[in-house]
Amino acid sequence: MFSINVGDDGEIHLSGRFDASRVEQAEAVFNRVTNTCRVNFSDLQYISSAGLGVLLKTQKRLSASGHSLVLIHMNKLVRDVFRIARFDLVFQIDEEQSPPLKMS
Asked: I want to staple 58 with a disulfide (CB 3.0 to 4.6 A). Which of 19, 25, 30, 44 is the partner?
């Protein structure tokens, strides 16, 4: 099971398993992001290459306008996937607890 929710503060919260069967659901949310946005991975158990693709596409679009995704609260398994794919060089991964950014 996978869920994606946007909090009142604009933070995107992912939970469950983000695989190819959930790309359309995730794109519907990420396509609406226009500014720097935190993505909370605290409840995400798994991410496939299809899920990585959604995040990368969003990151590229945002970086063209000086914004980015800030990935927070990754578990070790998900963090390792990002490191193996070298996506830790593309995304800002914040391991610290910090307040969510406000969306404008």
From this structure: 30
User: Any residues with CB less than 8 A from the CB of 18 and at least 6 apart, and which?
Assistant: 2, 26, 44, 46, 47, 48, 50, 51, 54
**Backbone dihedral region for residue 32 (phi beyond 0: left; psi -120 to 50: alpha; all else: beta):** alpha
In order of their start, the domains of the chain are 2-94 (3.30.750.24)
Quote the tokens at residue 29: 């949310």
Please state, in angstroms and rounded to a whole number, the distance separating the CA atoms of residues 69 and 92. 7
The whole model's pTM is what?
A: 0.89
Task: Kindly report the number of other CB atoms within 10 A of residue 22's CB atom.
Answer: 21
